[in-house]
C-alpha cells in the first residue's frame, strides 16, 4: 500500500503492519541513538588500542556530529520529496556500512572518516523514522504511535550506555559499532516489506545541497581550528578564517535561495531566537560534560567501561519517568520557570561532579551529582521543545524542531572541541590521571557558567506561549544529546502540508 501526499494514511497501531512499522522505526532510530550515547564510554579503550591522541578522540565524537548536524535538515527534506521509506532505508544501510568501517578501522584517521560517514547515515534515518510514523499511521492513532516510538527509543537510550560498557569490557570497543550491522540487516528488510512508501509532494522543488554543504563545512573548519589550536600549525588560522567565511556564505545562501534548507525569516520570532540561544548554552554544557565525564570516571576514578557506562543511567531513567509530567507542568505554569530552574540545577550537578576524583565512591560522590543533574534535565527538556514549537506557526513546527535539534548538536560538537583548549589539556592528557583530573576541575565550572548564562537568558526572554500554538507530540524523552525531533504537521485533512522538514 503506497501512501502519497493526497491520501489519508490508514495504518492502525494494533494491526500487524502497524506493529512492524513501529519495530522498524524504533530499530532505525535506536541505531543512531545508541552510537551517540555509548561512544564516549569507549574512548579510553579506543585511544589505547589505536594509540590515538586526545585530539583524535575529540574527532571521533565530532566527525559524527559535524555531518549529522549539518545535514539533518536536508535529510528530512529528501525523505519528504524522494520517498520517506526509500531515504530511511538508504540511511539505515549507509549507517550500517559506515559502522562496519568504524569497527574494522586500523587507525584513528580511518575511524574518524568512518564516523563522518556515519553522521550522513544518521542524518537520513533520524528524521526519517519519525516522518514514517507521521505519514503512515491513521490520524486517530498517530499520537499513540509517536508515544510508543519515543518511549521505546528512550528505553534504548537507557540500555545504550550499559550495553556499550559491557561490549567494551567484553568483546571489545569495535563491537559498539559492529552491533549496528545485524540491527540494520533486521531493520531494512522489515521496512521494505511492511512500511508503506510516502512523500510530501512538491517534487519539483530543488534541494538546498549548497546550504547543507556550507553549513557542515563551517562546522568542520571551526572544529578543526579549535581542536588543533595548540599545535602551532599554520593551517589553524587559515581554517578558522575559512570556517567563518563558510558560515557567512551559508547565511548568504540561505537568505537568497528560493527554497532554503533553513529559511532565515523563521528567526524573526524573538521567542524562537531566544529559545535557540538557550538551547546552545544548555547543550554546549551537556556535550562537554558527557564527553569529559566518561573519561574522568575511567581515567581518574578508575571505573571500568561498564561501570562508567551505567554511572549516568539514573539521568536517563528520570527523563523516561518524568519528562511527560514536566511537560504538563510547564503547560500549566508556563515555560519560563522550568527553563530557568532546569539549567541552574544542571549547573549545580556539574559542580557536584568536582567531588569525583581518584577512587571516588559512586553512592557518595557520583550519584548525588547525577540525580541533581537529572532533575535539571527533566525540568528543562520538555518545556524547551514546547517553547520552540509554540514560537512558530503550526505549518513550521517541524522546521523549528529540526533547526533546534541541529543547533543542539552543533553546540555539543563546539564544546567538545573547545573545552580541552580552554582547560589546557595536552594531547596525552587522558593518559595521566593527575593531568586529566586537573583539567576536568577547570572544565566543570566553565560548563556550569554556560548553564547559568542560559538560565539568565531564559528568565529574561521566555514568555508564556500564545493560545492555540502547536504542542509536542513526543512526550517521553530519553536522549541526552539533543532535543527530541517533532514530526512535520499536516495543514489540511488528509493532505500533507507544504512543510518539507523532518
TrEMBL record:
Residues 21-466 form the Major facilitator superfamily (MFS) profile domain. The chain crosses the membrane at residues 20-43, 63-80, 87-106, 112-133, 145-167, 173-195, 207-227, 233-253, 274-294, 306-324, 336-354, 366-390, 402-423, 443-462. The keyword Transmembrane helix applies. Residues 468-502 are annotated as: Disordered. SUPFAM superfamilies: MFS general substrate transporter. Gene3D superfamilies: MFS general substrate transporter like domains (1.20.1250.20), Multidrug resistance protein D (1.20.1720.10). The keyword Cytoplasm does not apply. It is a multi-pass membrane protein. InterPro entries: EmrB-like (IPR004638), MFS (IPR011701), MFS_dom (IPR020846), MFS_trans_sf (IPR036259). It comes from the Bacteria. It is found in: Cell membrane. Keywords: Antibiotic resistance, Cell membrane, Membrane, Transmembrane, Transmembrane helix, Transport. Pfam families: MFS_1 (PF07690). PANTHER family: EXPORT PROTEIN, MAJOR FACILITATOR SUPERFAMILY MULTIDRUG TRANSPORTER MFSC. This is MFS transporter.
Amino acid at each position: 500500500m503506497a501512501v502519497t501526499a493526497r491520501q489519508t494514511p490508514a495504518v492502525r497501531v494494533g494491526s500487524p503492519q502497524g506493529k512492524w512499522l513501529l519495530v522498524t522505526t524504533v530499530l532505525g532510530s535506536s541505531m543512531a541513538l545508541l552510537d551517540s550515547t555509548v561512544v564516549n564510554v569507549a574512548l579510553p579503550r579506543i585511544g589505547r588500542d589505536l594509540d590515538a591522541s586526545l585530539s583524535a578522540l575529540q574527532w571521533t565524537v565530532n566527525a559524527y556530529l559535524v555531518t549529522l548536524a549539518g545535514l539533518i535538515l536536508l535529510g528530512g527534506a529528501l525523505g519528504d520529496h524522494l520517498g520517506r521509506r526509500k531515504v530511511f532505508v538508504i540511511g539505515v544501510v549507509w549507517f550500517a556500512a559506515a559502522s562496519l568501517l568504524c569497527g574494522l578501522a586500523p587507525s584513528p584517521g580511518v575511524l574518524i572518516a568512518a564516523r563522518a560517514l556515519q553522521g550522513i547515515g544518521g542524518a537520513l534515518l533520524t528524521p526519517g523514522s519519525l516522518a514514517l510514523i507521521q505519514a503512515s499511521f491513521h490520524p486517530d492513532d498517530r499520537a499513540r504511535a509517536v508515544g510508543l516510538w519515543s518511549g521505546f527509543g528512550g528505553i534504548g537510550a537507557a540500555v545504550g550506555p550499559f550495553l556499550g560498557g559491557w561490549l567494551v569490557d567484553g568483546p571489545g570497543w569495535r563491537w559498539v559499532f559492529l552491533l549496528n550491522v545485524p540491527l540494520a540487516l533486521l531493520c531494512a528488510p522489515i521496512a521494505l516489506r511492511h512500511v508503506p512508501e510516502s512523500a510530501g509532494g512538491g517534487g519539483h522543488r530543488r534541494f538546498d545541497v549548497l546550504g547543507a554543504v556550507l553549513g557542515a563545512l563551517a562546522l568542520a573548519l571551526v572544529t578543526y581550528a579549535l581542536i588543533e589550536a595548540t599545535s602551532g600549525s599554520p593551517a589553524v588560522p587559515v581554517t578558522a578564517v575559512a570556517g567563518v567565511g563558510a558560515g557567512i556564505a551559508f547565511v548568504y545562501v540561505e537568505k537568497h535561495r528560493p527554497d532554503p534548507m533553513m529559511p532565515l525569516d523563521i528567526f524573526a520570532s524573538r521567542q524562537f531566537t531566544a529559545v535557540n540561544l538557550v538551547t546552545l548554552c544548555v547543550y554546549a554544557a551537556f556535550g562537554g560534560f558527557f564527553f569529559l565525564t566518561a573519561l574522568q570516571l575511567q581515567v581518574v576514578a578508575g571505573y571500568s567501561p561498564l561501570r562508567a557506562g551505567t554511572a549516568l543511567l539514573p539521568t536517563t531513567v528520570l527523563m523516561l519517568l518524568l519528562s511527560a509530567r514536566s511537560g504538563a507542568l510547564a503547560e500549566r505554569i508556563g515555560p519560563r520557570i522550568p527553563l530557568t530552574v532546569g539549567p541552574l540545577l544542571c549547573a549545580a550537578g556539574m559542580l557536584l561532579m568536582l567531588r569525583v576524583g581518584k577512587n571516588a565512591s559512586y553512592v557518595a560522590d557520583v550519584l548525588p551529582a547525577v540525580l541533581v543533574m537529572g532533575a535539571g534535565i527533566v525540568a528543562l527538556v520538555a518545556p524547551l521543545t514546547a517553547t520552540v514549537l509554540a514560537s512558530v506557526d503550526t505549518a513550521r513546527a517541524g522546521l523549528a524542531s529540526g533547526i533546534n535539534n541541529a543547533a543542539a548538536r552543533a553546540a555539543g560538537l563546539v564544546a567538545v572541541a573547545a573545552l580541552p583548549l580552554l582547560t589546557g589539556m595536552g594531547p596525552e592528557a587522558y593518559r595521566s590521571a593527575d593531568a586529566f583530573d586537573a583539567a576536568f576541575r577547570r572544565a566543570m565550572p566553565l560548563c556550569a557558567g554556560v548553564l547559568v548564562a542560559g538560565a539568565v537568558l531564559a528568565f529574561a526572554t521566555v514568555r508564556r506561549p500564545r493560545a492555540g500554538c502547536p504542542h509536542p507530540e513526543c512526550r517521553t524523552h530519553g536522549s541526552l544529546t539533543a532535543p527530541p525531533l517533532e514530526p512535520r504537521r499536516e495543514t489540511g485533512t488528509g493532505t500533507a502540508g507544504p512543510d518539507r522538514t523532518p
